[in-house]
Amino acid sequence: MANRRSKPKTRLKVIALGGLEEIGKNMTVLEYGNDIIIIDCGLAFPEDDMLGIDLVIPDITYLAKNVEKIRGIVLTHGHEDHIGALPYVLKQLKVPVFGTLLTLGLLENKLREHKMLDKTTLHTVVPGEKVKLGEMVVEFIHTNHSIADSVALAIQTPVGMVIHTGDFKVDYTPIDGDIIDLQRFAELGSQGVLLLMSDSTNAERKGFTMSEKNVGKVFERIFEETPRNRIMVATFSSNIHRIQQIINAAYMYGRKVAIIGRSMVNAVKTASELDYLWVPPRTLIDINEIKNYRDEQLVIITTGSQGETMSALSRIANSEHKQVSVKPDDKIIISASAIPGNEKNVIRVVNELLKKGADVVYGGIEDIHVSGHARQEELKLMLALTKPKFFMPVHGEYMHLSSHRDLAISMGMDKKNIFVNKLGDVLELSKNEAKVTGTVPTGQVMVDGLGVGDVGNIVLRDRKHLSEDGLMVVVVSMEEETGQIVAGPDIISRGFVYVRESEGLMDGAREVVMKALQECEEKNITSWNYIKNLIKDTLKNYIWQKTKRSPMILPIIMEV
Amino acid sequence: MANRRSKPKTRLKVIALGGLEEIGKNMTVLEYGNDIIIIDCGLAFPEDDMLGIDLVIPDITYLAKNVEKIRGIVLTHGHEDHIGALPYVLKQLKVPVFGTLLTLGLLENKLREHKMLDKTTLHTVVPGEKVKLGEMVVEFIHTNHSIADSVALAIQTPVGMVIHTGDFKVDYTPIDGDIIDLQRFAELGSQGVLLLMSDSTNAERKGFTMSEKNVGKVFERIFEETPRNRIMVATFSSNIHRIQQIINAAYMYGRKVAIIGRSMVNAVKTASELDYLWVPPRTLIDINEIKNYRDEQLVIITTGSQGETMSALSRIANSEHKQVSVKPDDKIIISASAIPGNEKNVIRVVNELLKKGADVVYGGIEDIHVSGHARQEELKLMLALTKPKFFMPVHGEYMHLSSHRDLAISMGMDKKNIFVNKLGDVLELSKNEAKVTGTVPTGQVMVDGLGVGDVGNIVLRDRKHLSEDGLMVVVVSMEEETGQIVAGPDIISRGFVYVRESEGLMDGAREVVMKALQECEEKNITSWNYIKNLIKDTLKNYIWQKTKRSPMILPIIMEV
């Protein structure tokens, strides 16, 4: 990237390091001259082929190279795909972090787990507040989302105003009382917005996203219709508004509320402490107390709405939860929709709960969930209020970004002013012009256990090979100088066949390898490379012929 | 299972070996005295945790033990989950197979691949035909489904009439001209039906399943609105009616049709030869001829509607298809809905096609697919027409079977007469009574390459372990009698870390193992079991401490 400071008119650079062509690891960089600000720093969940990987974070090579320019990280809200990578990234970039109270509250929990809390500078902001970061000024604007305390960002740069919506929807009857600050967006729009970056998640969906209050009404109705049975509700632990509504309904119907699932317990604790959750007195009970109450006096709020294996609801479904067992006629509400990829897990949990006699309510049956992301009418509203000169759809798979672009085109925006970018594309803006001028390094950094980035494609490729057909280890001891076989070949397999039932196959394998090795001895071949490759090829062909499988073959020569 | 022939009143036994609490590997056994008939014999696709497995077939232990009783296998239709296990099962059970023309046509292709064709006796039947199998008489009744030539079965037994619907829907405007034979079901219902087994796949969905003709109308509209561009349609190769409508629309708009994808080419060939598909003269062209035509003269029908990795559409999306490349403004229609588990694959393919500039039409946007399975109103119709004494929902996950039961209850059927069974449950019926009296062995037999059933839980567990954290092999050469270390320990890893970047870790690993081994030498421990376990534990603790990962550890001692 050429340093453009020497040129008379510095341009603003906008670079996404995450969140484009994916839903996850959102991270956007704004760079003006000697100042960089980072918007969000999230993680992504591993794809199915990332075997053994715990999570994925953005590649910050570009930022590490320019660390002295970074003025701060500003956060839009506390979801994992916006803050989850911070404990890792902050180890390399020691920069201040700005966010709202709940957002930083959730972040603190993470930093504490990673023993990073005392090494990090956190600044709490409120909607309406402005923070000067170098030559850019960031204003935080209240929005509605499926987590409280979410904000959009209006960043005043010398080149023009940049708005980043964060994740948002328009909720005219929000739970916490404040509609998204449409007036402010309108004001900024009339003053002139250079670039809008907006949430594309639901850009393919027509109409409006329903209000969170709707779900509350459905809960009330279900509670009304279920006077005698225990009620359990699984939902996202980050959706404090949803939890509030469940607690409200419980209170209305004279039920106590118990919370289970580690992330749910933590979220409720943090939100209560920071006053984002109002729990009526004497409503919350500990899970161990539920035996002191009748079924009709209980509501249990739990993790596991995505069928996650170790979640509380999954463990309950598999009769593995220490304190909670399903009773026939329990009313179990799954207050979430399945994120693509999780459908089978949800089906599995629902089946198990039904088998145990529970009455399960989920997406297909009732409106017990609404999205936190704007649909087409709300996205068009945002475009109409802000009237940006240039538009960059963010936060979506290609299909979502593309649909969002089509929306803007349908409203009369010129295709040339809309940028459906790739990660790493450098969008350079001046007062009147915007274009992609180059790229910076980007990528996925995989986290596995304590290791960050040490699992690359070769390791994954090997894991995949091992997972499909297992492994055969062939060990031979050879005399160093003569190449004489001293012991072996011993063949050990794992994940290939059940050896006790396949002795004939293994004996045959040993024979063909022995034969190949003897030929090497006779021809006085001592090159280990040659011998190893011969073992590999011989065994591979034999096994394929017999089984049509290709286990990984690992020849090991011990020199004695 | 006690032989009940000696008792005065023989009971009918109904046993599902597949298709309950799952969608896949459908197989139901009817046993009366010395006669067994088998309804369908399908395969299931492997679950996500069945690493490396190709397909899953039912466990037929019970049938193998009673093979002399088996009078035949009757097939309801030619989908994989109804005929896919036959090439394997027929190797053990050499019994005749009865099915309609297209069903046997598709089966023949499979048997030919497995070199089983000349060893199998196939009898073609037509709807209305009755076949006597021992003391039971099987009548084939025409139904509508997402494949042509599908039938329900009405099995007259000495105890009473049993109806098995197969997979069905009610289509009042079917493509091949014949509405499902409602009159026959009504007739049987008035004569008295002892047991109904009915398709539960869409039992949770309200209303009616739309007619296949609707999709044809949508195609016509899309073709009308796309006068200038090339059109591609991805759909299920087994849905001949869908393919017919695409061909019809192509013909109407003066386009040639090319077929790609092995299973699609085979299906079209088989269906045409058997007159299930009418292809207007000079309409079909070979894929290699497409370059001789302009875009607006072409329709390409392809496999890949589920985003399957090796399918033609996936390869096209990844620019890997030899004859077809995406052109900007290609109209690509995905005429299917994503089966649970396949959503991410479909999203991936759609993204890639959009990026290449294609205009992609899929489920969310247009009604370009209808299900082949009856929804609630049709299922209630079937119950109302047949008025069975006893009811056993089949073909569904637990949630579907359970919903189907609820439907019957809502119509006034007594809960006691409805059986939501598990695989292997033996449902015994007399004229007036039905109850589950025991179980037979059942299970999943996994097919991997040529091996059938030789990959069991241990092998899968090992594959899972290997896939998550990889493997470390520790090889030591020891003198047989003294236990002296002659060479090693050598440590080789795969799928664990990228070794070149982790030399410190591997060196440390070698040291701790060496130390442990030296202690064994000093203490004169020669028990290999002990030494191997010590190596395992020592290394495991070291690696966990350093990386929080648990690779499989394979200690190997070479005796020299």
From TrEMBL, chains A, B:
Ca(2+) binds at G52, D54, D448. It is an enzyme of class 3 (hydrolase). Pfam families: Lactamase_B, RMMBL, RNase_J_b_CASP, RNase_J_C. Binds 1 Ca(2+) cation per subunit. Seen in 1 crystal structure, it is not clear if it is physiologically important. Binds 2 Zn(2+) ions per subunit. It is not clear if Zn(2+) or Mg(2+) is physiologically important. SMART domains: Lactamase_B. Transmembrane segments: none annotated. The active site is at D199 (proton donor), H373 (proton acceptor). Zn(2+) 2 binds at H79. GO terms for molecular function: 5'-3' RNA exonuclease activity; RNA binding; RNA endonuclease activity; zinc ion binding. GO terms for cellular component: cytoplasm. Its EC number is 3.1.-.-. HAMAP family: RNase_J_bact (MF_01491). This is Ribonuclease J. It comes from Anaerotignum lactatifermentans.
